[in-house]
Description:
It is built from two helices and four strands, in the order βαβββα. By secondary structure, the chain is α+β, with helices and mostly antiparallel strands. The chain has one domain: Macrophage Migration Inhibitory Factor. The strands form two sheets. A two-stranded parallel ribbon has the order 1-2. It has a two-stranded antiparallel sheet with strand order 3-4. Pfam families: Tautomerase.
Amino acid sequence: xxxxxxxxxxxxxxxxxxxxxxxxxxxxxxxxxxxxxxxxxxxxxxxxxxxxxxxxxxxxxxxxxxxxxxxxxxxxxxxxx
Length: 81
């Protein structure tokens, strides 16, 4: 019985978009389940997929909270010119 955990950021891709839609979540579940069937032969009815949306303030990158990491990275890109 495979259990797949998918974590996606809740920050959205535009100011109006705040989270992954139900339709997108359904596509992720179907796609991951199909992949496990195709690659490992795991039946769809024995595959569990958990999708968790993570708020921006609850994750880090490079040892920093993500907003700070992005600020530092943006500053380095500007100074490279």
